[in-house]
Specification:
This is histidine kinase. It comes from Janthinobacterium psychrotolerans. Keywords: Kinase, Membrane, Phosphoprotein, Transferase, Transmembrane, Transmembrane helix, Two-component regulatory system. It is an enzyme of class 2 (transferase). This protein is α+β, with helices and mostly antiparallel strands. It has three domains: about 5-150, 2-Layer Sandwich (Beta-Lactamase); about 240-290; about 300-445, Heat Shock Protein 90 (2-Layer Sandwich). About 55% of the residues lie in helices and about 20% in strands. It has helices at about 5-55, 60-70, 145-195, 210-240, 240-255, 260-295, 305-325, 340-360, 415-425, and strands at about 80-85, 90-95, 95-100, 110-115, 120-130, 135-140, 300-305, 325-330, 335-340, 365-375, 375-385, 430-435, 440-445. Helix 6 packs parallel to helix 9. The longest helix is centred in the middle third of the chain and has 51 residues, at about 145-195. The protein is rod-shaped. The two termini are about 50 Å apart.
């Protein structure tokens, strides 16, 4: 019980319902029997005061006559109780043959048993002391009221019993449904823990559990995507880094096996260092991707101008473009304010421009632009080179992926992966489109 939130919620629900039932029963009881008792008490008080005003010590005839009239007027005559007793305890008038002893307190309403017309009955009785020591008893037989009271209490008992049964059944059903919904989540978690990342929580409603299930499923989709990325990277690293590592080893092994001059040793060492530097750059780029995908840099976001970032990158690559025979231009426009990390966006745009210059080919044109539409602000690089086959476009952002025709060019297939990670960090995405001719890559920021 202490460890089960379902049991505690069911118990709390049951206790709350029990308290509610008790309150309703109490209100019902005091709203029926209580009203009847108060009505009887008011009538007894009024009659007692009325008879007391008629009483005279020297002559009780008027009071006795009024008592006789009240007992025969056919208004509550079957339940009315009256008795006038002298100071010596002698019965003067009334319909009681036995009554409470003289020591009974006067001025208070009592619930007692008396003998009325030879029959013992429960009665509500008001005793009043008169001015000469005589006593006036005014009451009402409570047979009918007691019957109503018994009926009400029995109804409350039966209704309360049924309510308790329903309460227990409802609490059990509540706990069972709650445990069933939680059980679905736990079973899915256990299957995922066992290694099946494709499992998802069934969503059968739009309630809180349904919303929670959707949130968890989205999280699982993201985790599965990341795990697939990790597996892909692992496979790509094993495949793409095996060759350069083997090349470094072979060079060093060859240098050790044969007599070498100092210059030959230096050449082998420099070649090995160059290959190792290439590997270091690959791992640096992987670290950049991990840093961007971690989402840990939003605190460095600031107000930036995308037009100015484009101008800076174009100025930085103009010389390189001239050397490659490529015309690098910027499509100027008004300032375009945005919010993001200036260094990361500059690095991403630089990578796009570098790729465009490298793969567009001599005599091509590379355009750098920025803009804004309903989906948000963007930076774009477009070229009119040979482009990429439509079937290859979705694969360009995969880590270590390179087209067969570009494998002879320097690179490692991580540039667009880094740009895609930076776009995701800014709440956007990387869009790769066929520019017909050439290729258009758009780094889109979130609105």
């Amino acid at each position: 019980m202490p460890k089960s939130i379902a049991a505690r919620l069911a118990l709390g629900y049951g206790l709350l319902l029990a308290i509610s039932i008790a309150i309703v029963c109490g209100v019902f009881y005091f709203g029926t029997i209580g009203v009847l008792d108060r009505s009887v008490d008011r009538k007894l008080t009024v009659l007692s005061e009325r008879l007391a005003l008629l009483y005279r010590p020297e002559d009780s005839t008027r009071t006795s006559a009024e008592i006789a009239h009240l007992l025969t007027d056919r208004t509550d005559s079957d339940t009315e109780i009256f008795l006038l007793v002298s100071a010596e305890g002698r019965r003067i008038s009334g319909n009681l043959s036995s009554w409470p002893v003289a020591e009974s307190p006067a001025g208070k309403l009592l619930h007692v048993h008396v003998t009325r017309e030879g029959r013992v009955v429960p009665a509500r009785l008001l005793i009043r002391d008169l001015i000469d020591g005589s006593r006036l008893y005014v009451g009402r037989a409570m047979l009918e009221s007691d019957s109503i009271r018994t009926l009400v209490l029995r109804s409350i008992a039966y209704g309360g019993g049924v309510a308790i049964v329903l309460m227990v059944a409802g609490a059990w059903l509540f706990r069972r449904q709650l445990e069933a919904r939680i059980g679905q989540i736990r079973r899915t978690a256990a299957e995922i823990e066992a290694g099946d990342l494709s499992q998802r929580i069934p969503v059968a409603s739009d309630d809180e559990f349904g919303k929670l299930s959707r949130d968890i499923n989205r999280m699982l989709d993201r985790i599965e995507h990341l795990m697939e990325g990790v597996r892909h990277v692992s496979n790509a690293i094993a495949h793409d880094l095996r060759t350069p590592l083997a090349r470094v080893r072979n060079k060093l092994d060859g240098a050790l096996r044969q007599p070498q001059t100092v210059q030959a040793w230096q050449g082998a060492a420099q070649s090995a260092i160059a290959d190792i530097d290439d590997l270091t750059r690959v791992f640096d780029k992987l670290l950049q991707i991990a840093a961007a995908e971690s989402g840990m840099r939003p605190e460095y976001f600031s107000d930036i101008d995308l037009q100015q970032i484009g101008a800076d990158i174009v100025e930085m690559y103009e010389a390189t473009a001239d050397e490659q025979g490529v015309l690098l231009v910027q499509l100027y426009g008004p300032e375009l304010p945005a919010r993001g990390d200036r260094n990361l966006l500059g690095s991403a745009l630089a990578s796009l421009v570098d790729n465009a210059i490298k793969y567009a080919g001599q005599g091509s044109t590379v355009e750098v632009s920025c803009g804004q539409d309903a989906a948000g602000a963007w930076l774009a690089v477009r070229d009119n080179g040979p482009g990429v086959p439509a079937s290859e476009l979705p694969k360009l952002t995969q880590r270590f992926y390179r087209l067969d025709k570009s494998r002879h060019l320097p690179g490692n297939g991580l540039g667009l992966s880094i740009v895609a990670a930076i776009a995701a960090l800014h709440g956007g995405s990387l869009e790769v489109e066929d520019a017909a001719p050439g290729l258009c890559v758009r780094l889109r920021l979130n609105r």
